[in-house]
């Protein structure tokens, strides 16, 4: 609001580009990082109208920074946007994700200005601060803008696949298959998907009366296809790192520039083009929210647009969540390096998330005696560790349980028939292919319920990952291993000195725990509590678990 007051008062407001902006519509303003844009309209928090030289257009507000410039005598006051230096991928996506959740209020009837902007019918572009038009015209403008951006986006994808990737494949002396996979990810899959999506949009587009177009069903019919963006977004940071390494060699700079000129692309570097799919998937909820705002409830497309908005918000939320998981794999690798006597595969070979952790008493059927262990539940596996008798902050690896082969069963308080022992606060893991059974004893009923819920969350996570094909690439695993070696070398840490981590949170009050319908809520058996206090080992690593205790 302060920005608009300054502009309305005649002050000049200049914004400095934090990174490149590749346009996806006719009236968007392209620029490079470092360019200065004169801000002409900032009434919309997401998209501003600006000018560079003689060219005007829309640009995302999250791509620039502004700070006040001291007023000069006999001149208009000038303002510059002040940056917050954060990595390109994180800044772009996170701001867009936050903005997606902000739904503007419906403008009051008779309002002379639209708070969240609308589209100018003369140029098919989002306009800010213009007089409110009738709902049908506003809806037509939003539809036109969606169609326009989709067509331009297809052009950008084609340029990347044919202008860059195809040419790179011809130069086997400069690129190997692994490098191209890291740099371009699954861009060709995205290109094929988007062409099918746009074809269906065109069929639903009413050229004579755009406001009658019913495009909501197109998003719903293709909702599963949008999950391919998860792989691309998760890979994007690695792509930027690989490109940065290659660009240190002048040959690659000249090669990519030659590709751009040959394909007659706009003057934006290759990393700017590779950012467009990340921008695009984040832009869908913004466009659908705008479309819903100008769609009457009696319109045949209303319920489909509302459902499409929920779907696309969920897609971007899940992409954000999986990106967070990838950011934590370095910590998981570092934790494994701190556990002594590790055997078998690395955690990251199958898992990417710590779901829950805590101490339990454990009885394995052949032996029938209780052992106190520390358990770490990841997706696909449960890792067992033992604390050192003297140094309680040191853990020894004692095995793991493949959660894909086991099912969780509640244990009723009292005499257990399988183990012939009395149990309390207990649950079991039973092998689906054999008679192997493990029984676990929690300290309190609340802790048992937490574990049951955590196991349920683990299965849910595995199913969702399988649905969208989420996995950690070999490149990302190697990067995590390199990071662990670098941190270990810098800090002088050896395998005998694990990082410091806090204990699980105190049990929450009664009534906050629920067990899913497929889990009978029985009483659980006794946990043999150590007289020693909690070691500080758990503190940081347990914070990685997204599961609410």
Automatic annotation (TrEMBL):
TM stretches of this protein:
none
Ranges for domain DH come to: 138-322
Under PROSITE patterns, the record lists: DH_2, PH_DOMAIN, SH3
Keywords attached to this entry: Cytoplasm, Guanine-nucleotide releasing factor, SH3 domain, Synapse
Task: Name a single GO cellular component.
Answer: postsynaptic density
| Places the protein is found | Cytoplasm; Postsynaptic density
**Location of the PH domain:** 353-460
Q: Does the entry feature the keyword Ligase, yes or no?
A: no
Major place of residence? cytoplasm
Q: Which GO terms describe its molecular function?
A: guanyl-nucleotide exchange factor activity
In this chain, the stretch annotated as Disordered covers 492-512
One matching Pfam family: SH3_2
InterPro entries, A to Z: ARHGEF9_SH3, DBL_dom_sf, DH_dom, PH-like_dom_sf, PH_domain, SH3-like_dom_sf, SH3_domain, SOS1_NGEF_PH
Task: List, alphabetically, the Gene3D superfamilies matched.
Answer: Dbl homology (DH) domain, Pleckstrin-homology domain (PH domain)/Phosphotyrosine-binding domain (PTB), SH3 Domains
What does the annotation say about its assembly with partners?
A: Interacts with GPHN.
Question: Which PANTHER family does this chain map to?
Answer: RHO GUANINE NUCLEOTIDE EXCHANGE FACTOR 4, RHO GUANINE NUCLEOTIDE EXCHANGE FACTOR 9
Q: What does this protein do?
A: Acts as a guanine nucleotide exchange factor (GEF) for CDC42. Promotes formation of GPHN clusters.
Q: What protein is this chain from?
A: Rho guanine nucleotide exchange factor 9
UniProt organism field: Betta splendens (Siamese fighting fish)
- The protein's gene is named LOC114864633
């Amino acid at each position: 609001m302060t920005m608009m007051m300054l502009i309305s008062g005649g002050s000049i407001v200049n914004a400095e580009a934090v990174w490149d902006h590749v346009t996806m519509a006719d009236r968007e303003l392209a620029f490079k990082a470092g360019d200065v844009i004169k801000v002409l309209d900032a009434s919309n928090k997401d998209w501003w109208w600006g000018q560079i030289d003689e060219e005007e257009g829309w640009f995302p507000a999250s791509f620039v920074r502004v700070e006040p410039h001291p007023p000069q005598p006999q001149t208009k006051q000038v303002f510059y946007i002040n940056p917050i230096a954060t990595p390109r991928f994180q800044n772009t996506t996170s701001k867009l994700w936050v903005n997606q959740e902000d739904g503007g209020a419906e403008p009051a009837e008779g309002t002379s200005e639209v708070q969240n902007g609308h589209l100018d019918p003369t140029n098919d572009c989002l306009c800010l601060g213009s007089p409110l038009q009738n709902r049908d015209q506003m809806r037509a403008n939003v539809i036109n803008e969606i169609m326009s951006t989709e067509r331009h986006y297809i052009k950008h994808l084609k340029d990347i696949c044919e202008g860059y990737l195809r040419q790179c494949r011809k130069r086997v002396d400069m690129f190997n298959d692994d490098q191209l996979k890291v740099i371009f990810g699954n861009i060709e899959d995205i290109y094929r998907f988007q062409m099918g999506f746009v074809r269906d949009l065109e069929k639903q587009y009413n050229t004579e009366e755009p406001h009658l177009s019913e495009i909501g069903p197109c998003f719903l019919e293709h909702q599963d296809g949008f999950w391919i963006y998860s792989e691309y977004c998760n890979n994007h940071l690695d792509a930027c790192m690989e490109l940065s390494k290659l660009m240190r060699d002048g040959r690659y700079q000249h090669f990519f520039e030659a590709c751009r000129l040959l394909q007659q692309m706009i003057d934006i570097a290759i990393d700017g083009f590779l950012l467009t799919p990340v921008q695009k998937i984040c832009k869908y909820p913004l466009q659908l929210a705008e479309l819903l705002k100008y769609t009457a409830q009696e319109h045949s497309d209303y319920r489909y647009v509302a459902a499409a908005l929920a779907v696309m918000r969920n897609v971007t939320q899940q992409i954000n969540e999986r990106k967070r998981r990838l950011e934590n794999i370095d910590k998981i690798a570092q934790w494994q390096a701190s556990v002594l006597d590790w055997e078998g595969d690395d955690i990251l070979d199958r898992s990417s998330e710590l779901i829950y952790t805590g101490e339990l008493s454990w009885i394995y059927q052949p032996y029938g005696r209780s052992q106190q262990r520390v358990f770490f539940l990841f997706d696909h596996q449960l890792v067992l560790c033992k604390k050192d008798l003297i140094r309680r902050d040191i853990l020894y690896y004692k095995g793991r349980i493949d959660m894909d082969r086991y099912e969780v069963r509640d244990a009723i308080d009292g005499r257990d028939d399988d183990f012939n022992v009395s149990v309390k606060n207990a649950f079991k893991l039973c092998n689906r292919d054999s008679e192997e059974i493990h029984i676990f004893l929690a300290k309190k009923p609340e802790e048992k319920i937490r574990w049951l819920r955590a196991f349920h969350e683990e299965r849910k996570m595995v199913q969702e990952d399988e649905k969208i094909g989420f996995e950690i690439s070999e490149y990302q695993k190697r990067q995590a291993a390199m990071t662990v070696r670098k941190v270990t070398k810098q800090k002088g840490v050896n395998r005998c000195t694990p990082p410091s981590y806090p204990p699980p949170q105190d049990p929450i009050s009664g009534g906050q725990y629920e067990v899913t319908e497929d889990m009978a809520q029985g009483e659980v058996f006794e946990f043999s509590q150590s007289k020693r206090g909690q070691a500080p080992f758990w503190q940081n690593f347990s914070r990685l678990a997204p599961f609410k205790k």
